[in-house]
Amino acid sequence: MSSATFDLTEIDHVAIAVRDLDAAVAFYRDVIGATVVHREAVEIDGVEEVLLEVADSYVQLLTPTRADSPVARYLERRGEGLHHVGFRVSDCAAALESMRSAGAAAIDAVPRPGSRGTTVAFVHPKSAFGVLIELVQENRAG
Questions:
Q1: What is the rounded average pLDDT of the residues 87-115?
Q2: Which member of 48, 83, 84, 137 is catalytic?
Q3: What are the pLDDT digits (tens) for 117-134?
Q4: Which domains are assigned to the chain?
């Protein structure tokens, strides 16, 4: 693979798939001391997520909201644990195209809306040594 031709700015989040979102939130909040900064149901992905702030990044807790969601299938096959790593990029479309040009298999054909107003695209774990990668572009105004 060639070198990246996109701007990777930082790790956006580490996502953890859980069966009981409220119990996981309580653990990370009460035992680890993380602050909950966002909670959202993402219907297109069939998940509910909670973001816990850690410096300028997040721990994302995910639980399925329907049995046919990718996270539900993941929990069935592998159980709870690390689901994916989100890398913050300045331009999601350029990052996705760069990865595709380098031989990575994209899950998303084009970037799409993500939670908290972001633009996202996923890259298959077979292209990244077993790790599902999410490219995350923040779309903050001003």
A1: 96
A2: 84
A3: 999 999 999 999 999 999
A4: 8-137 (3.10.180.10)
